[in-house]
Amino acid sequence: MASEKVGQMKNLPLVSIVTPSYNQGQFIEETILSVKNQNYPNIEHIIVDGGSTDNTLEILKKYEGTYNMRWVSEPDEGMYQAINKGLRMAKGEILSYLNSDDLYLPWTVETVVAHLTKNLSVDLVYGDVISLDMENKTLELIICPPFNLKFLHRAGGFFQPTVFWRRKVFEQLGGFDETLKFVADCDYWMKVGTIFGIRKINEVLAIDRLHGSAKRSLYPDVWRNELKEVRKRYCKSGLIQKNLELFIYRLYGPFWQRYYMVKFLYRYLTRHKSKDQSAWSRFLSIKDLQMAPWHQLLIRFVPFIGRRNPRWTIKRGIYLREVNSGTDS
Q1: Cα distances (angstroms) measured from residue 249 to each of 11, 199, 227, 253
Q2: Residue 46 · residue 95 · CB < 8 Å
Q3: Residue 128 sits in a domain of what CATH number?
Q4: What is the dihedral of CA 43, 175, 231, 246, to 10 degrees?
């Protein structure tokens, strides 16, 4: 049986997931479990720690040897240097990075590999996300638009924990710009979009956790200013055209939000009548599991989705039970 499993893994592309970390002991164990409990078997998890002084190293040692994870802890010059270090260590055909405070859903990697295997002209994929506000105890289902390069320039990027790309992208473009401290991912996606094929997967692929110690929360003005400078690298149009594009984006944004929410709602209402494993099928299948309370609450209120992304109140911590169970079938 063991040799059969090894043989099956050899036929599956290796997926390398890099996690940068620094003093994130309160979050990183849940992130580790969300990778460890993936339905997809051929994964390597590389954790690059910047010399944490909290309980992070104890947690890393706890999971060392329990799955295909390796880690290093040494001082670095920031998150993107750590990510680049991990990407250079990676052996996978498909690459990604997952911050130490974010989470995958059990089907995330399996869904991504299936899509990239089927669509050889696509080099980078992204999906939908649950944004979890740890301070206000609310979650928000965010449906992202299909890929459009001009829209990417205006919006600034995708939800990072949902993004995966082929090794050839890294081999051709190299790593992330380490001179940027907040938006090197946005810069990278824009760079990829000018050369490679990008496609949206209509599936919820990650949980993006928002909390007071997140860099974007601590330094919102610096984040916005960096993003403005990155946009200038790729948006070559004049001031009038830029303002026109921004105006169109603001009109288009609410339209696609409503359109895709209606599409999502239709999929929800017809999920038992169709055997089609297409848009959001894995996320909608949660209803058939032994669900954590937040999943029950989430599904129960889907029919009442309004004009914008839905929000619900949850109790802290209970959302992790299903994410980390690895019981999805």
Answers
A1: 43, 19, 16, 6
A2: no
A3: 3.90.550.10
A4: -20
Residue 172 domain-assigned?
yes
**Cα–Cα distance for residue pair 43/30, rounded to 1 Å:** 17
Long-range contacts of 314-319 (CB under 8 A, 24+ apart): 314/137, 314/138, 314/139, 315/137, 316/134, 316/137, 318/292, 318/293, 318/294, 319/132, 319/139, 319/207, 319/292, 319/294, 319/295
pTM, whole model, 2 decimals? 0.80
Range of the domain at 133: 2-234
Work out how many domains the chain is built from and give that number: 1
Is 138 part of a structural domain of the chain?
yes
- DSSP summary character for residue 146: P
Phi, psi of 209 (to 5 degrees): -90, 125
Residue pLDDT tens, the chain, 329 long = 444 455 556 789 999 999 999 999 999 999 999 999 999 999 999 999 999 999 999 999 999 999 999 999 999 999 999 999 999 999 999 999 999 999 999 999 999 999 999 999 999 999 999 888 766 566 677 888 888 887 787 777 789 999 999 999 999 999 999 999 999 999 999 999 999 999 999 999 999 988 666 555 556 788 788 888 888 888 765 444 455 555 555 555 555 555 555 566 556 556 555 555 567 777 777 654 333 444 444 444 444 443 344 443 333 333 343 344 443 33
Identify the DSSP state of 135.
T
Would you say residue 216 lies in a domain?
Answer: yes
- Asked whether residue 273 is domain-assigned, the answer is no
Pairwise CA distance, residues 135 & 109, whole Å: 28
Structure tokens at 227: 């993003």
Distance separating alpha carbons of residues 48 and 18, to the nearest angstrom: 7
